[in-house]
Design goal:
Elements (H helix, E strand, L loop, with lengths): L8 E2 H8 L3 H10 L6 E2 L5 E3 L1 H16 L4 H11 L1 H10 L27 H6 L4 H26 L4
Antiparallel strand pairs: 1-3, 2-3
Helix pairs in contact: 3-5, 4-5
């Protein structure tokens, strides 16, 4: 018998649904304060539907997008749990918005990169390590742009 989508899940049910070992869920509870399953007698955990959705978003960011735990913590701190839940549901990370933008051209579209190799063209996906490296490079470039924009706004002495 399948549970209702609104039903609480035990740790084994949540782990099966997310294709994760139970110890990973327990570990994530220590790293992400937003994960707060109900604990009943004997320490038994019950995950709410939102907890499972949040775990799905965290899993997606860590495993599919190549973020570090610190990176996901930063996303949670800056954008909140609802944002990570949405990422888990849609697989879409919002466009990057530079810090301190003026509001006119804040959203920056990623430029087309060099042609992908044959394997990437066939699968249409980029491996996790490469995606993480590209994300790091993009963030560094955006920070450089922000610094340059700020420097060009200041009057010369």
């Amino acid at each position: 018998m399948e549970k209702s989508p609104d039903a609480f899940r035990t740790i084994s049910e949540a782990a099966d649904e997310l294709d994760l070992p139970q110890h990973v869920l327990r570990f994530w509870e220590t790293r992400f304060s937003q994960i707060k399953p109900l604990k009943r007698g004997g320490g038994r955990r019950y995950y709410r539907p939102d907890d499972v959705q949040l775990l799905r978003g965290i899993r997606y960011l860590l495993y599919d997008e190549g973020f570090t735990i610190k990176g996901v913590q930063k996303i949670l701190k800056e954008n909140g749990a609802r944002h990570v839940i949405t990422i888990g549901e849609t697989g879409a990370i919002e466009p990057v918005v530079p810090v301190g933008g003026n509001g006119d051209n804040d959203v920056i579209e990623a430029p087309q990169l060099a042609a992908p190799d044959a394997q990437t063209q066939q699968s249409g996906k980029i491996d996790t390590y490469s995606r993480a490296r590209l994300n790091e490079a993009l963030h560094e470039l955006l920070e450089c742009k922000r610094i340059l924009d700020k420097a060009t706004e200041e009057p010369l002495n």
